[in-house]
Amino acid sequence: MHLSGETVIGAGRQRVWDTITDPRQVAGCVPGQPKVDIVDDRSMKVTAVVGSGFMRTTVVVDIRLTELEPPRAQLPQPAPS
Predict the structure, then answer these.
(1) How many whole angstroms separate alpha carbon 64 and alpha carbon 40?
(2) How confident is the prediction along the chain (81 residues), in pLDDT tens digits per residue?
(3) What is the DSSP letter of 61?
(4) How far apart, in whole angstroms, are the C-alpha atoms of residue 61 and residue 14?
(5) In this predicted structure, what is the pLDDT of residue 29?
(6) With contact defined as beta carbons under 8 Å apart, do 50 and 32 qualify?
(7) Residue 59, SS3 per DSSP
């Protein structure tokens, strides 16, 4: 999945940071209502149905939040298998 674009958010930095580092809140923003299992404070397992029309599949991705620089930046990465 490739997400791109730019959006102006009418909230302060800390509020945005708290939202993008909370897996449950992020999951609510992703199309398809993925299932999010919290592993620990920086790791989660996301199960989502992706595709178009009749071509759909379920993907499971382990994600770890790294390079956290509150409240400036974070880099979500697939966790090593």
Answers:
(1) 9
(2) 676 777 788 888 888 888 888 877 777 777 667 888 888 878 888 898 888 888 989 989 898 888 777 776 655 666 666
(3) E
(4) 27
(5) 73
(6) yes
(7) strand
Q: Which of 40, 20, 38, 39 is nearest to 30 (CA)?
A: 20
Structure tokens, 4: 């791109």
pTM for the model stands at 0.60
**Contact criterion met (CB below 8 Å) for 41 and 26:** no
Q: Report the 10 Å Cβ neighbour count for 23.
A: 22
Helix and strand numbers (H, E) in the chain are: 2, 4
Q: Say what the pLDDT of residue 75 is.
A: 59
Structure tokens at 8: 């102006």
Give me the amino acid identity at 56: R
- Assigned token pair, 38: 């919290």
| CA 14 centroid distance within chain | 17
